[in-house]
Amino acid sequence: MFGPKSYLHGGGFAGINNKGPIVYFDIRVSSPYRDLILIKESQLETEEQLLSGKLILSINENFVLKKLSLKLVGRFKLDFLQLDHGSGVTNIVKDRKVVFETNWDNLLVSSHGEVVRSNKTSLNHPMRSFSSPVVNRLIKKKSTTSHVLELPSDGFNGTPFTDLDPEHSYLFHLHKGNYELPFDVRLPQDIPDTIEGLQSGSILYSFEAIIDRPQKIHFHSHGFSTYKYLRIFRTLAMDHLALQQDVTVSNTYVDKLQYKISIPSKAIAIGGSTVINIELFPFRKGYKLEKITGSLKQWFVIRDTNDNLYDDQIVINKQSMTEFKDIENIQQRDNLLLGNTTINSIFQLPHDLKKITQDVECANDLIHVKHKISIHVMLRHIHDNKTLEIKANLPVLLYVSPAERVQGRLVLLDSTNGNIHFRTNEYVDLFDPSATNSHSSITPNTHSLSPSPSPAAMLLPPPNYMDRLKDSLVNGNRSVTRSAPVSPRLTHQDQHPPRHQDKEIDFFGLPQPAATPVQLQNETQFRALGTASPTARQPAEPALPLPPAISELSEDERCQVPSYEQTMQEYPH
């Protein structure tokens, strides 16, 4: 018998009496990630996701069963306390709803599942997947006599019976051995993401497999069941526009100051980081930079079954910067702005899905989750002591990527009913740590990936198109560098080519500084990545670094320098 307080770590077989016939009973999902399905989301095309796996069964004695069924259920749960600020009364808000369900009526007969409920359908109007065969209905028709079908004596791998007469009912005689029964279904495009970190609501998925035994034969026996927790997330395909779309906010305070704040990509992976570029152009002298604060804010709205809306906004993390050492045109003694200034800073995102939830847009407006990075720059004028505040909100799209370290909550399943429980303050890595970027020390080198392709690396955003131009090598010690054009947000850095010509270019095309910033902590300092003093914008082409003087080159080196005709053919305008 199942113990009253027996739990399964994420799912699988546990708690059955050792004297019973079942030795091992588990549900295995075909995925490069453990008990997790990652759906690629693209703005150009949308494909249905295939979910497949095997039901593993090991028995130590012969027995007869009616069917071996499987189902996958996604449940929406709303549970929180609502305070009425007008009356001071606290109300308990609770709601439960099945938002997705797929059934496999008998894996001994068919491996194809039937989607009977999705976010846009109901049980009254079942929706069949494209792969669901008619044989799924043959067990539903009963006859007075049940035919007993024998399975191989040493176990079986596959679907043993695929063409049975629907006019008869069947019993299946399993011999001692090991069995692997495949299952598959095509998930609909509108299937909601797993949401397990919001305090107010959640969407959780779990499998349930049931061995149904005939009572006439096993009068004093019972059926067997096992459960498995499944996570379903969306990630961005390489052609998603948000990966190449930057976000910029700029404004002008008349006779005071002009600013421009930007990030290189609207899409940011949870557990990753982004570079925040802050450009300040003071119109008068005497401004002192006091503090820069960056806050990641999460906004969500939840709709219950009665169409009532509940929304809230929380600050996920806050990072600040009060020291501005080694930044050009900032006086180190009192942070006085001496001229146009640029500050590049790293903003780090949390990696656990209890603290932060990915961007979600469920069909029928069930749950919406969105994010923005708020930047607050505080300046003070030394003559009149008046403050000048700059506030900017940068909308971002947060997604789950196997290239970053992401942690989920440790899940325990009640072996008696499959109820899901989360272990307090305990987490598990969702992706193989060896295939993710390590953030033990944050560095500006955001393109440092494993040289060998991996399933995780295939989902990384593609390199910047402008990084395709490579330096032309003259010899091992000296080179003629041709800098690729950079995005408009960094035009001021083109005015000083010698400063960056020997530095690496990161994933976003940003020149790397000599100093390496440390990881940002909550309510601690930003660290500047690099500095540059912007000058007035001009429509001229970016200047190219000058090659060494010809007189300094040997005859062999001069022969390797490309001619004007070769250069124009290689880099046409």
From TrEMBL:
Boundaries of every Arrestin C-terminal-like domain copy: 253-403
Compositionally biased residues, Basic and acidic residues: 491-503
Biased composition (Polar residues): 563-573
A GO BP entry: ubiquitin-dependent endocytosis
One Gene Ontology CC term in the entry: cytosol
Annotated stretches, region: Disordered: 478-503, 530-573
Gene Ontology MF terms in the entry: protein-macromolecule adaptor activity; ubiquitin protein ligase binding
UniProt xrefs under InterPro entries: Arrestin-like_C (IPR014752), Arrestin-like_N (IPR011021), Arrestin_C-like (IPR011022), Arrestin_domain-protein (IPR050357)
Source species of the chain: Zygotorulaspora mrakii (Zygosaccharomyces mrakii)
Full protein name: Arrestin C-terminal-like domain-containing protein
